[in-house]
Amino acid sequence: MFPIKTARLSSMPYDNFFEQELSILKTEGRYRVFADLERHAHKAPIASWYSKDGKKPVVVWCSNDYLGMSHHPLVIEAATKAATTYGAGSGGTRNISGTGHLHVELENTVAKLHEKEAGLVFTSGYVANEATLCTLAKGLPNCVAFCDERIHASMIQGISHSRVPKHIFSHNNLEQLRQQLDSYPLNQPKIIAFVSVYSMEGDFAPIEAICDLAKEYNALTYLDEVHAVGIYGKGGAGLANALGQSHRIDIIQANFAKAYGVIGGYITGSKSLVDYVRSFASGFIFTTSLPPMVTSAAISSINVLQQADDLRQKLWSNVNLLKNLLSKTKVNYHHTPSHIVPVVIGNAKICKDFTDTLLHDFGIYVQPINYPTVPRGQERLRLTVTPFHNEEMIKDMTNALALLWEKFFMLKAG
User: Fold this and answer.
1) Which residues are paired to 342 by β-bridges?
2) What is d(CA 194, CA 151) in angstroms, rounded to the nearest whole number?
3) Residues 354-382 pLDDT 10s
């Protein structure tokens, strides 16, 4: 038998540590409280909120389900049929028993979408970024990574885990990127990691100019199109496609969890590059694969959106209406070129109070965005209108924002 060890008086008070750290978050106004919501098929953007006073209807204004595809009848039908036909789970990792024909079909679908030789599907966009960037940067001899300061956390993690030298250039600063690239030999492997549509700022990357630099300095281009696929480009092929630059991007990464309304991530690129990641990426090799209902739903959603220009037109009509109405208020919003509309509050506590008031007094749900998602002092609301918000909802949202802006900022300033 193992000897019984008595607890030492100097042992770590674990729970005290956790509670202290959480207390700091609460004091700073950064403690996240998740609204208990119930989404309903075919009723977006209306959802039910389980408040302390009971179940109440709310209008959701922060969903990444940009085109409402999680509610689309053909997507739901595809998921239901696949679950009935193939079962609820995939059977394991792709390397053991979890590769199904639907995985292969989905990979062929995304490769065709981006006009690349091959595709590889992951369980999430986060895993796709982390696993791919880590594998490529670590595997390429003496590789150096160059990253826009506002790339997604999953990209940062992947590069950090590779332990290669990395340079961070200020957001969309091409001159700084050039200076960084210029400090390394032309023949030294390099990866430039950036995002097409930055989800917190709602702005675009200068894709063509970055591709020019990559060609000049012999660097691989790695582009995250997560917030662009389905919405931009021919048939929803992304912003690089819309700008005629897809053929110049070495690795296009995206996911199915935003405009496609499902879950899962993927990369596309040359056959040899994708096969290299498939063969060496730990995050791919040791993760149970997506269940058949998800892969089938993703295929269906991509196919639908390739022919859904009317849905995209309705989205942009609503986006433009929202921006036009906001322009007539004092609300501090960013008039972005994208479908994402940030409203900068600039204080974590006020941001939380602001969104709480929207929820409790106006039946509008927006989750506050604070550090570390955005820098301190840049706390914000991130508004995402969909094709299914009607004109009345958009006007109600604008009026609510204007009233609360007066309450929280204008009157206090006076």
Assistant:
1) 382
2) 6
3) 999 999 999 999 999 999 999 999 999 99
- Cβ atoms 266, 110 nearer than 8 A: yes
The Cα-based distances of 327 to 6, 31, 345 in angstroms read 67, 31, 16
- Is 258 considered catalytic here? yes
Residue with tokens 């909120």: 49
Q: Which residues of 10-28 are buried (b: 16+ CB within 10 A; e: fewer)?
A: eeeeeeeeeeeeeeeeeee
- CA–CA distances in Å: residue 75 to residues 103, 141, 294, 303, 373: 16, 43, 9, 10, 31
- Segments in 94-217 forming alpha helices (H): 101-113, 125-139, 153-162, 174-182, 207-217
State the pairing for strand pair 46-51/251-255: unpaired
Which of 305, 338, 361 is a domain's end point? 305
Whether pLDDT at 216 is above 80: yes
Instruction: Point out the catalytic residue in the list 258, 271, 352, 395.
Output: 258
Q: Is there a single domain that holds both residue 283 and residue 222? A: yes
Let me know if residue 5 belongs to a domain.
Answer: no
Which CATH number covers residue 142? 3.40.640.10
What residue type is assigned to position 16 of the chain?
N
- Residue 381 and residue 259 share a domain: no
| pLDDT tens digits, 301-342 | 999 999 999 999 999 999 999 999 999 999 999 999 999 999
Between CA 212 and CA 284 the distance in angstroms is 31
Spatial strand order of the sheet with 220-224 comes to 118-122, 265-269, 251-255, 220-224, 190-195, 144-148, 166-169
Position 225 in a domain: yes
Angle at 301 between CA 130 and CA 238, to 5 degrees: 55
